[in-house]
UniProtKB/TrEMBL annotation:
Domain of life of the native organism: Eukaryota
Family: Belongs to the WD repeat SEC13 family.
InterPro entries attached to this UniProt entry: Sec13/Seh1_fam, WD40/YVTN_repeat-like_dom_sf, WD40_PAC1, WD40_repeat_CS, WD40_repeat_dom_sf, WD40_rpt
Species assigned in the record: Lepeophtheirus salmonis
One Pfam short name: WD40
GO MF terms, alphabetically ordered: structural molecule activity
Protein name in UniProt: SEH1
Record's subcellular location: Lysosome; Nucleus envelope
GO aspect biological process, one term: cellular response to amino acid starvation
Key words of the record: Lysosome, Nucleus, Protein transport, Repeat, Transport, WD repeat
GO CC term (a single one): lysosome
Main location: other
Presence of keyword Coiled coil: no
């Protein structure tokens, strides 16, 4: 059974993103009020308490992301103010801006740290249609980040995702677009790093995705081989509205989606390789999860 904790985030404007740390014991939120807030879970009571709150940008903060804990307590943020920033907690409860990334000429729409096997890499994408890959050559000096690659996508970029299961020699990066000007252009691209050419190469584009894309997520699967095949496994309209976020559980067996209908829906693949909505969570702490056995809005 699912349980809820009602968290008053105390933001003064729209909340655009929430992110758990690696262990799920810390939570970061960001908002149009230009603030980021950090919440820590009390291990004894399970209650969430705010430990930090600070102004991070001069515009709306779109995304916040945690680096792997082996690199320390590190956050990345991106904003409408055309910048991305890296923050480090030192001492506990105090977050210090270590660098400000100012290469974009338009709003920076997403930011993600790479899986730890690639080192301390950071990817950003922006409304000008460029994905940028940064690297911290010395993990002990987070004030120094070098721009390693710029990947032109030729369309507005809205979101990105690293594949956590791809081999160290050939990382994969997916990029989504929310450009609604042309429905004929692909909205999802996959890029792979080519070690011999030392550059990122577009290896896939999804022609069957024509609507604006707001989020992407690779399912974790550590046993995946180096090859891959892209196919449409399912398409669903259960939310009946814009879907803003998708997220996998740690085993890659359950997918959560949230939409403008105010619900979080949990999806699971059955023995016939068909995805079904197995539970619906309402944004109301007084209501329980609703098992769903009737969902069959599948378009393959």
């Amino acid at each position: 059974m699912f349980s809820w904790k009602d968290l008053n985030c105390e933001h003064k404007d729209l909340i655009h993103d929430v992110a758990y740390d690696w262990y799920g014991h810390r939570l970061a939120t960001c908002s149009s009020d230009q603030y980021v807030k950090i919440w820590d879970m009390d291990p004894d009571t399970g209650e969430w308490k705010m430990s930090s709150s600070w102004k991070t940008h001069s515009g709306s903060v779109w995304k916040v992301t945690w680096a792997h804990p082996e690199f320390g307590q590190i956050l990345g943020t991106c904003s409408f103010d055309r910048t991305a920033a890296v923050w480090e907690e030192s001492p506990p409860g105090t977050w210090v801006r270590k660098t400000n990334l100012v290469d974009s000429r338009t709003s920076v729409t997403d930011i993600k740290f790479a899986p730890r096997q690639y080192g301390l890499l950071l990817a950003t994408c922006s409304a000008d249609g460029v994905v940028r890959i940064y690297e911290a050559p010395d993990v002990m000096n987070l004030s120094q980040w070098s721009l390693q690659h710029e990947i032109p996508c030729k369309t507005t970029c809205s979101c990105l995702a690293w594949n956590p299961s791809s081999p160290k020699s050939a990382p994969l990066l997916a990029v989504g677009s929310d450009d609604s000007a042309s429905s004929s252009l692909p909205k999802v691209f996959i890029f792979q790093y080519n070690e011999s050419h030392r550059c990122w190469i577009k290896v896939e584009s999804f022609s069957h995705v024509s609507e604006p894309v707001h989020d992407l997520a690779f399912a974790p699967n550590p046993n995946t081989e180096s090859g891959y095949e892209v196919r449409l496994a399912g398409q669903y309209d259960d939310h009946g509205s814009t879907v803003w976020r998708v997220c996998w559980n740690v085993t890659g067996t359950i997918l959560a989606s949230s939409g403008d209908d105010g619900y979080v829906r949990l999806w699971k693949c059955n023995y016939l390789d068909n995805w079904r909505c197995v539970a619906i969570l309402k944004g109301d702490v007084n209501k329980r999860a609703i098992p769903n056995f009737k969902s069959n809005n599948m378009k393959l």
